[in-house]
Amino acid sequence: MTVLLDPTSERSPTIRPRLPRPERLDGLTIGILDIAKPRGDVFLRRLGERISERGIAVKHYAKPTNTRVAPLPLRLQIATEVDLVVEGLSD
Amino acid sequence: MNTLPRDGVVAVVKRDCPTCTLTVPVLGELARRVELAVYTQDDPSFPESVPARIDDTALDVSYRLRIEIVPTLLRFEAGQEVDRIMGWHRGEWERLTGIAGLGSDLPDMRPGCGARNIEPGVVERLKIRFNETGLKSRRIEIGADEDEQEAMDARGWTDGLPLVPPSEERVLRLLDGTARDPQEMLGLVPPDLAPATVEKIAINAVMAGCKPEYLPVVLAAVEAVLDESFAMHGVLATTMFVGPVVIVNGPIRRRIGMNAKGNVLGQGNRANASIGRALQLVIRNIGGGRPREVDRATLGNPGKYTYCFAEDEEGSSWEPLSVARGLKLGQSAVTVFAGYGLQGIVDQKSRDAESLARSFAGSLKAINNIKLAPACDALVVVCPEHHRTFRNAGWSKARLLEELYRLCEIPGAELVAGANGIAEGGPSSLAGKTVNKFRPDGLMIVHAGGDAGMFSGIIAGWSASGERGSLPVTREVKP
User: Fold this and answer.
1) Contact residues, chain B, for A2 at CB < 8 Å
2) What pLDDT score does B146 carry?
């Protein structure tokens, strides 16, 4: 473990806070990431339909395999194309 | 943990010390005749003459005893140190131990060597281990598998380039560069108005790549920008181009190896680069002044990574900038100026001062916009070959300033909005008047650059120069 000294005025927590949740979804684009677990695609496709019915833009993505982290190009693509991501974490 | 004897004699030695090896037979004799504890700093098998020697390669005992020299001989009574001798001195050793005739075949005295526990790099680690650093800043733990650069970047500490990780060891070593108390407060850094302690500044200076000997210059630069008349908040928050430009004068320049010669405003000199960068990181990290937040610059300028250089005083017939600004010759100083970029003055043909001054003035009149006057302050960097022309004509810095100011008078009619087909400009009431491109005292001159090339430069300032905005500030560099 490395210990560094904080160069800041120490007004924010040492652990980076999560981005705040958006108050509304209007005008945002939601990404749906299928991590390639069995039948995740069925559930997520239906979820995407329900979200689209509310007039919210949806984009679908899929990891090649659930055993590895998403490839960097996919992560960059998601980061540049959507405001929020929904993913299923298990079977 | 090694426990010191309550009563008796203590010796601290290391094999890598010729004086210690000289005293090996004496230590053997003492071990037989008095209550003796020998602590060895480097090699647990040394000294062979003392079978019960104690391993202090971790240096705990040496650190607690504040050993500076080996061999050191100490006497303890009732748990208290009552006597201490550094190096080999027969008479003193005999007095301390009460035994006569020690080391009769040795020279009478021999100075010792530096102790391991005060070696650079070692002393910092010991202070950290004993929790005696005195450093107050929050400790941030980075996981063993985490990349330090990524961890620092994720926390928003960087200007976009890699940083030197500010470990406790590095910060302690950097603080050796100043005699000032790490908790001394130099001022409140905008925009958050957070306190700038010497310690916090040192952390940012480590990250910027500074060496300990640069720290006094960084501290002086921070003090200078925090002077109210510099208006650091405004310099940060403006949509215009400026950032602090740091000019260094006096003996410190050469002591820390700053560049005042070729490529003086460019890359390649660690002191120039890291001092300017440290100042920017202080604004960013202590003050919370970040681009596209409170820093509203439209374009900014590359000097907002770092903009720091030294004046070439040795090659100049002129008084240094710091002297022109009221300090004594021989005093080290920094001057901060809210400036940006560089506009070249190319003149390879003028051989008399009058012609060259007209060249300078013509270029000066263009800064910001030829239609704007007064525009902003400007710092003129006169290169050695141009300086030679002024020197040969007997022009002082003051004379050149006076001539430039006179040559920067502009007929008001040229400045009226719409004149010359340019909508930018001043009110029609300017017509018939004469307006100067600069406010009085709005020009500064420094001498710097490579010996070859007739290329001087203008570092233009902020439109809000002067009393209503930012004034240049000069501060002495304190040890």
Assistant:
1) 141-142, 144, 146, 148, 165, 167
2) 93
B323 secondary structure, DSSP code: H
**Spans of chain B below 70 pLDDT:** 1-2
Hey, which residues does A2 pair with through a beta bridge?
Answer: B142
- Could you give the CA distance from residue B447 to residue B321 in angstroms, rounded to a whole number? 9
The verdict on a CB contact (< 8 Å) between A7 and B192 is no
Comparing CB atoms, the residue among B137, B165, B194 nearest residue A2 is: B165
Kindly list the residues of chain A whose beta carbon comes within 8 Å of any beta carbon in chain B: 1-11, 14, 16
CA distance linking residue B361 with residue B340, whole number of Å: 18
B168 Cα to chain A: minimum distance (Å): 6
pLDDT (tens digit per residue) in B273-328 = 999 999 999 999 999 999 999 999 999 999 999 999 999 999 999 999 999 999 99
Instruction: Give the pLDDT score at B1.
Output: 45
The interface predicted TM-score of the complex, written ipTM, equals: 0.85
- Cα gap B182→B169, rounded to integer Å: 14
In the beta sheet, which residues pair with residue B84?
B74
With helix as H, strand as E and coil as C, how does B246-272 read? EEEECCHHHHCCCCCCCCCCCCCCHHH
Considering the entire predicted model, what is its pTM? 0.86
Question: For residues B90 and B106, is the Cβ–Cβ distance under 8 A?
Answer: yes
CA distance B127 to B158: 28
Q: Which of A5, A9, A19 best probes binding to B when mutated, by most B CB atoms within 10 angstroms?
A: A5
Instruction: For residue range B363-387, list pLDDT tens digits in order.
Output: 999 999 999 999 999 999 999 999 9
At A91 the pLDDT is: 63
The one-letter code for the residue type at B72 is T
With beta carbons under 8 A apart, name residues in chain A contacting B141. Answer: 1-3
Closest CA to B277 of B200, B338, B198, B222: B222
Distance of alpha carbon B158 from alpha carbon B280, whole angstroms: 10
Task: Report which of B175, B162, B179 is spatially closest to residue B205, judged by C-alpha positions.
Answer: B175
